[in-house]
Amino acid sequence: MKLHKKIKSKFFLFCFLIILLSGVAIIFFGNRSVDDTARTVLIDIPRGYSFLQIITELDRAGLVTNRPAFYALAIVKGAARQIRAGEYELSTSMSPIEIIDKLVKGEIKSYKITIPEDFTIREIAARLADNKLVKESNFLKLANDRRLAASLGIEGSSLEGYLYPETYFLDRSMGCREIIQIMNAQFWKRFTPELRQRAADLGMTIHEVVTMASMIGKETGFKGEKPLVAAVFHNRLKKGMKLQCDPTAVYGLKDFDGKVRRSHLLRNAPHNTYVIRGLPPGPIANPDIDSIRAALYPAKVDYLYFVANNNGSHQFSSNLPSHREAVSRYQILRKK
Q1: How far is 260 from 245, CA to CA, in rounded Å?
Q2: What are the C-alpha distances in Å from 104 to residues 61, 63, 67, 111, 268?
Q3: Tell me: the pLDDT tens digits for 170-229?
Q4: Is 327 in a helix, a strand, or coil?
Q5: Residues 137, 158 contacting (CB under 8 angstroms)
Q6: What's the rounded Cα separation, in Å, for the pair 296 and 191?
Q7: Residues 6+ apart with CB under 8 A from 324
Q8: CA atoms of 111 and 90, how far apart (whole Å)
Q9: Tens digits of residue pLDDT in 95-146
Q10: DSSP state of 224
């Protein structure tokens, strides 16, 4: 009986020592860097991957030196079901514990993406696709989805005009819909209740304001000129004149080379304000807050015309003879 107790005691002691040594080994393994090369590795963990599949990806990238020990460490830390899908930037100078902690915290690699003012949705899609954040065709399809636009409180048939130009930090785990929602949320943040009330006071819908703002932004990049351009559009609308905004004539052209030609001005297109009267059916780009405010607070001037001069700004005129004189003057200067 005593012999049996001794054997049993020794067995438990042996098991305790095994567990203790295993724990020490796992702690030692968990706190030691993978190697000394400090090599940076990008790991993309797709949605729906099991933990074993994740370990396989880490192993292939040279970030796991002992799979059983890594798996045991992850189990101890309760990490097996907590890893978020996405792209991670890891290093071989990190320890297994640091790697697991980063995966569990979901510290996904983000990309700093700047969307310039007056980009079209097509240009936004191309920039995001260049950074491998979206598939361009998928983004464009969703950005032109009337149902999505309606769900976001947008009157038009697309998101054109409502994806605010800003610097964003995006990651590759985000889908097209999430990125669109982030950009649209920024638009509504900028279009404050004060501006909505101002639109109502002018008898304009938000959609009309954004449409005019997109035209203003496309016509000039000078902040100080924007209220003057806005005044021209407002004055023309009051007089029933066509807006004759060059950028509207080329909106939607995939092969536009940057030069507006007479054939463009005669083009029968729904946004072409040389053909239609009034505002286009929707925005032609995504304006910033300066253009939006200009559309709502135009300068108190009687200008009806403007022409580009040689430094990127414009000459404004109140009547046709003065405008023609300005056009002739700047055409001569350009030829010189």
Answers
A1: 11
A2: 18, 16, 18, 20, 56
A3: 998 889 999 999 999 999 999 999 999 999 999 999 999 999 999 999 999 999 999 999
A4: helix
A5: no
A6: 11
A7: none
A8: 15
A9: 888 888 888 888 888 999 999 999 999 999 999 999 999 999 999 999 999 9
A10: G
Q: Yes or no: say if 291 and 277 are a contact pair by the CB < 8 Å rule.
A: no
* Residue corresponding to tokens 């300068």: 299
Separation between Cα atoms, residue 70 and residue 234, nearest integer Å: 68
Residue 21: predicted pLDDT = 43
Among 15-24, 132-141, 233-242, 270-279, the range scoring the smallest mean pLDDT is: 15-24
Q: Is 152 helix (H, G, I), strand (E, B) or coil?
A: coil
- 239-259 burial, b if ≥16 CB within 10 A, otherwise e? eeeebbbbbbbbbeeeeeeee
Instruction: Provide the b/e sequence for 58-76 (b: ≥16 CB within 10 Å).
Output: beeeebbeeeebbbbbbee
How far does Cα 11 stand from its chain's mean position?
A: 63
CB 162 within 8 A of CB 209: no
Token pair 């260049």: residue? 130
Q: State how far the Cα of 299 lies from the Cα of 313, in Å rounded to an integer.
A: 16
| Percent of the chain whose predicted confidence (pLDDT) is above 90 | 54
Nearest to 34 by CA among 102, 98, 95, 100: 95
Around 16, how many Cα atoms within 13 Å sit in the side-chain half-sphere? 6
116 Cβ contact list (under 8 Å, min separation 6)? 165
